[in-house]
């Protein structure tokens, strides 16, 4: 029992994992402090299953006149001018065999923070929530959501 308590304390006091190096620095904290809404950059097109990541052209709607002298914004402008996607390093990745619907989760009252942590406090994102099967099952149990296999996994015939 003492070893278990030590491991729990050690996990609770461990520093957060390092944020992956991104091609362009981006602070959710700074952008959300400006009262920008998540959906301004992360579109959820119909049917609402997937959230998008903003194209450089979306960023340039503001940054064509804001912080234009910044090397990071100049790099962003280059991506936009060349119509290239920014090669963001994914922080969260759901396996292909999992059927995950952002729309279903948002409609049930989940927020971005439910799965992605305190994004509004982060200058750089890191994986801070457990999106493993066990983590998702714990959340589903806590919120009395389905834990039936077919809720998240398509049955193959």
What are the SSEs and their pairings?
Elements: H1 2-13, H2 28-33, H3 38-41, H4 56-63, H5 71-81, H6 102-107, H7 112-116, H8 133-142
Helix pairs in contact: 4-5
Structural class designation:
mainly alpha
Average pLDDT metric: 87
Total strand count, please?
A: 0
The radius of gyration over CA amounts to 19 Å
Pattern of helices and strands: HHHHHHHH
Number of helices: 8
User: What about the largest sheet?
Assistant: none
Query: How many angstroms does the end-to-end distance come to?
Result: 45 Å
Tell me which oligomeric state these chains represent. Answer: single chain
What is the 3D form? elongated
Structure description:
The radius of gyration is 19 Å and the shape is elongated. The protein has a domain at 21-53 and 88-151. Mean pLDDT is 87; it is low at 1-12. The protein starts with a helix and ends in a 15-residue tail after the last helix. The chain contains eight helices and no strands. It is mainly α and 157 residues long.
Provide keyphrases for this structure.
mainly alpha, disordered N terminus, 157 residues
Provide a short characterization of the protein structure.
The protein has 157 residues and is mainly α. It contains eight helices and no strands.
């Amino acid at each position: 029992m003492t070893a278990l308590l030590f491991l729990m304390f050690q996990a609770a006091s461990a520093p957060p994992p390092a944020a992956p190096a991104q091609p362009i620095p981006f602070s959710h904290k700074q952008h959300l402090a400006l009262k920008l809404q998540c959906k301004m950059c992360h579109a959820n097109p119909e049917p609402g299953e997937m959230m998008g990541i903003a194209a450089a052209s979306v960023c340039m709607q503001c940054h064509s006149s804001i912080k234009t002298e910044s090397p990071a914004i100049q790099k962003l402008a280059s991506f936009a001018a060349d119509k290239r996607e920014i090669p963001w390093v994914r922080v969260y990745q759901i396996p292909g065999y999992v059927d995950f619907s952002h729309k279903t989760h948002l409609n049930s009252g989940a927020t971005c923070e439910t799965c992605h942590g305190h994004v509004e406090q982060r200058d750089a994102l890191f994986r801070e929530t457990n999106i493993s099967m066990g983590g998702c099952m714990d959340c589903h149990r806590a919120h009395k959501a389905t834990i039936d296999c077919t809720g998240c996994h398509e049955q193959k015939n």
